[in-house]
Design goal:
The chain is α/β, with parallel strands linked by helices. It contains 16 helices and 15 strands. The chain binds pyridoxal-5'-phosphate (PLP).
């Protein structure tokens, strides 16, 4: 693309640093400028439409423009456009939203803490794991375990939790207290002939070995996404969470379910924890909580943790943590309205009923010579590109198959999400059958063009 002088593209290059973007390449190619959205599509400044196959960043669950939510934000800004919740202050939308979340929590939860992002919710959960263990007289329990290729955010603690080496490189991270256990990617990592259950057992044994190696008296918490998102939409193998939770209980390790992607219907239940029988001590959520229309995240904690925090207040005084915009009345009012919309449209039933159409549409490409494996649940699916799917032989990296696919998808009006050699789909939850068919057509054309370039 030619970058014209004084265009928004040129001004972008001179004024912005983009997250997760090759900065040198950006100077050559410039940005894709998105001007507006409608339903599951966004439009660029050339007027071209794109189906958003991953809801922006797994978040725009109701699509890209919403009059009803705009009105709620407008009205709330006219009445109380800001107030905080420090030092005993409150506002009604905040309380209403907390009550609503507690009423739909996957397991009994006691209280809610609001933040503005998934990273902050996970950071807060990390701090509470430490605070809790201090409160119960086990200050040596400090270490936190998450999974290789897990993703939990970009702040210094949340990225330490994340198991993505590219996000640690040259930042001097992860921090000392963080450890990572096996990436439970069955298709890629199982031994020949190993069943999913046997693979899950191996994952749980690896976790137990890590805890024993570190010393169980030093291990405080474990984080997991029910379906791993940025790691490539990787589903847990059968029996995985059952076995992992046995290990965590044995060594009194708190479990935080990172529901930032899975929460609010993505997996065909309200929570991924329900889909995979997870019983967490804390739940973090964001993204679809406000359908991405406002920056808000929620951390739910159980009664055990709340009781420990109460004790701390007696010892230390005020709970010494908080963010200026936590419990913001506008973000809470919008999130509350989003949950009302989910209830009106019965989002869980909708995802359950449309999921087979979504999976069939993607699975019809399973014999394509680029594809090795397809696996999904609800409205989230990961597709592995493989030279030989059966023998699990990847394409040579010089072929740049996923990079080529990315370009071809864009040229066919599909914004894809590529994670290494995996393609990920998580479209807005409001996607219809016709839109799924259109998405699948565009996907098929991008696959064919990619194959014809390298085949
Ligand atoms: C599972 C998960 N947790 C946490 C985060 C971080 O959320 P945020 O970008 O809002 O900080 C993300 C972001 O993609 C995520 O996918």
């Amino acid at each position: 693309m030619t970058v014209l002088p004084n265009s928004v593209h040129a001004r972008d290059i001179e004024s912005l640093v983009h997250p997760q973007t090759n900065l040198a390449k950006h100077r050559e190619v410039g940005p894709m400028v998105v001007t507006h959205g409608e339903g599951i599509k966004v439009y660029d400044d050339g007027g071209r439409d794109y189906i958003e196959s991953v809801s922006g960043l797994w978040c725009a669950s109701l699509g890209f423009a919403q009059e009803r939510l705009a009105r709620v934000a407008y009205e709330q800004m006219r009445t109380l456009g800001y107030y905080h919740s420090f030092r005993h202050r409150s506002n009604e939308p905040n309380v209403d939203l907390a009550e609503k979340l507690l009423s739909i929590a996957p397991v009994p939860m006691s209280k809610v803490l609001f933040q503005c992002s998934g990273s902050e919710a996970n950071d807060t959960a990390i701090k509470l794991i430490w605070y809790y263990h201090n409160a119960i007289g086990k200050p040596e329990k400090r270490k936190i375990i998450a999974r290789n290729m897990g993703y939990h955010g970009s702040t210094v603690a949340a990225v330490s939790l994340s198991g993505k080496p590219d996000m640690h490189a040259d930042f001097g991270l992860p921090f000392e207290a963080f450890r990572h256990t096996e990436f439970p990617h069955y298709y890629r990592r199982h031994y020949a002939g190993e069943s999913e259950e046997a693979f899950a057992t191996r994952m749980a044994v690896a976790l137990e070995e890590l805890i024993l190696e570190e010393g169980p008296e030093t291990v405080a918490g474990f984080f997991a996404e029910p379906v791993m998102g940025a790691g490539g939409a990787v589903l847990p193998p059968a029996t995985y969470f059952e076995k992992i939770q046995q290990v965590l209980r044995k060594y009194e390790v708190l479990f935080v379910a990172d529901e930032v992607i899975c929460g609010f219907g993505r997996t065909g239940e309200m929570w991924g924890s329900q889909t995979f029988a997870i019983e967490p001590d804390m739940v973090t959520s964001a993204k679809a909580l406000s359908a991405a229309m406002q920056p808000i995240s929620a951390l739910m904690i159980n009664e055990k943790i709340y009781q420990a925090m109460l004790q701390q207040s007696e010892k230390l005084g005020p709970f010494a943590h908080g963010f200026t915009y936590a419990g913001h009345p506008v973000t809470s009012a919008v999130a509350l309205e989003v949950i009302r919309i989910y209830e009106e449209m019965d989002i869980v039933s909708h995802v359950k009923s449309i999921s087979p159409t979504f999976m069939n549409a993607l699975e019809q490409h399973v014999d394509h010579p680029l594809i090795g494996n397809i696996r999904g649940v609800g409205l989230i699916c990961g597709i592995e590109l493989m030279r030989d799917g059966e023998a699990r032989i990847p394409f040579q990296s010089e072929l740049n198959v996923s990079g080529r696919f990315h370009e071809n998808a864009l040229n066919n009006g599909l914004i894809p999400r590529v994670v290494g050699d995996r393609l990920v789909f998580a479209p807005p939850l409001v996607i219809t059958e016709n839109e799924i068919a259109e998405m699948s057509d565009r996907f098929g054309r991008a696959l064919d063009e990619t194959w014809s370039e390298i085949g």
